[in-house]
Amino acid sequence: MDQLPLPLEGITVVAVEQAVAAPFATRQLADLGARVIKVERIDGGDFARGYDTAARGLASHFVWCNRGKESIALDLKDPRGLAVVRRLIAGADVFVQNLAQGAAARLGLDAATLCASDPRLIAVDISGYGASGPYADKRAYDMLVQCEAGLVSVTGTPEQPVKAGVPAADIAAGMYAFSGVLAALVRRGTTGRGGPVEVSMLEALAEWMGHPLHHVLHGGTPPARTGLAHAVIAPYDAYPTADGGRVLLSVQNDREWRRLAEQVLEDPRAGTDAAFATNAARVAHRERTDELVAAALAKLDTDEALRRLEGAGIACARLRDVTELAEHPQLAARQRWREVGSPVGPLRALLPPITLPGGAEPRMGDVPALGEHTGAVLRAVGMTDDEIAALRRDGVAA
Questions:
Q1: How does pLDDT run across 313-331, given as a tens digit for each residue?
Q2: From 75, 170, 243, 267, active-site residue
Q3: For a tag on the chain, would you pick the N or C end, based on fewer CB atoms within 10 A?
Q4: What SS3 class is residue 275?
Q5: Does the annotation mark 52 as catalytic?
């Protein structure tokens, strides 16, 4: 049987993008076979290039979000640079931008303007708060949107709210932009028309807040911050083990509690004791419940604790740090690691989580240097070497 091609082969994407949300969206498109031309500023490029130097001198955010793209550096404030972008868009299927609010419209690169002149184009506007409303012009960074969306209010301990340790608002917006492009491509395939796609970080993250939001909307109280515990289930937490590790477990029903008591706590009476026999009782006596579980697990090393919990049919996990994630045996067993090229040599990277059995493996291309593809891309749209040299000389291209 012939191998299926990547689903987005033949699709060209032009992106005027920066930071995380838009680059993360277009990286998904590149992984699935699209050609992605990334337009960057000539003075340093995407500012995420300067966030850190953790990836052997490159920025970890940039490496994560920008593999498989062609980088072209242009000054869009110069009419000649803007004209090049318009020429690129004319040959593209998709255009994505996440410039500051109003900047794309001033350049004529907003989705509404572009789609009005080219009905087949799919044009994506990613913003912090949307194009209208009282927050439209507010600066929007991930942590700020996490706060506005209420995520911080339900994350952390009773004493201290905390933001998520990953850029959740950026990732949410990026993934909805990605799926919005896919939906628009399907629609174009049936109607011949592309159209605008709008995604805001606030609205994306508000959707992810669906459980606590619906809890409040329909008469409940805001969920309490409980750290790694669960507000209405016990035991459900992380417990220290004898070798300095921590094991998380979750008891979902009273049958599981009895098995936990018999096979792990080695205290069958706790399984039927009225203070612990039902989840409601265990929640009411959460401190005593946790003390029982903690005392038993503190006598076991992490591997033995997990072995006993799994033997008893109790859902459990090891609390890993990021270094341990990089060596996770499940990722290794499923051969999820690859190497991608970069200006500093090969770098480890995970295969994208969308697996298409029977199809070509995702195209995990190189991380580009700033302006690495400027000459090739400009020649491909018909510019001569002399014209390109003039743009470089005048600081319009790099």
A1: 999 999 999 999 999 999 9
A2: 170
A3: N
A4: coil
A5: no
